[in-house]
Amino acid sequence: MDSQHESDPASRPPDSARSQTTLRVNGKPHTLTVDHRRVLLDLLREDLGLAGAKKGCDHGQCGACTVLVDGRRMNGCLLLAVALDGCEITTIEGLAGDGEELHPMQRAFLDRDAYQCGYCTPGQICSAVGVLAEAAAGHPSHVTDPATPSGEPVAPGREEIRERMSGNLCRCGAYPRIADAVEDVIP
Question: What's the predicted TM-score (pTM) here?
Fold first, then answer.
């Protein structure tokens, strides 16, 4: 599959500016020839038809494009696709796996009505899954109690959730319900 969409072959970058890249997206391998300048978000949306991650600010400031890369949350608009060769990418479409059951975080967002327009919701949910994984792995945040032993799981209370989710903007202001949903999924 080619990651270029230009109809004029002359506008296509030379082969030296493109590389074959294999990404495992939502559990399925995809080998593509990718322009070195192509970001993951555009590849997901335009080449693979996965429109869940949204293009908000295109500068990594809003979080609408958040996906999980090898289990860590990242902004798809800032990641060059060729740099992710061999990585596992999980988008909102693949969060629940192949089953029909929603991921617990997706279910919590629905149960708590933690969205309004829904534009930011896929990025919020992927980020929330990453937040809980980071806390469980012992990664501190700005508000983590300094007395917490290094590498020990961090208790993701309300303040931790708010701080860790602060990179995801919601223009509708659903923040309290988003935090409620994340709290509902804490193991």
Answer: 0.90
Q: Which residues in 167-176 are b (16+ Cβ under 10 Å) and which e?
A: bbbbeeebbe
**Cα 108 to Cα 124: distance, rounded to the nearest angstrom:** 12
Distance CA 73, CA 137 (A): 13
How does residue 6 score in pLDDT terms, banded at 50, 70 and 90? very low
The three-point CA angle 137-141-147 to 5° equals 85
Q: 3-state DSSP call for residue 72?
A: strand
pLDDT for the residue numbered 11: 64
Which residue has tokens 């029909």?
Answer: 100
CB 135 within 8 A of CB 154: yes
Query: 66, 179 in Cβ contact below 8 A?
Result: no
Can you spell out the DSSP letters for 128-149?
Answer: HHHHHHHHHTT---TTS-TTSP
Three-class SS state of 52: coil
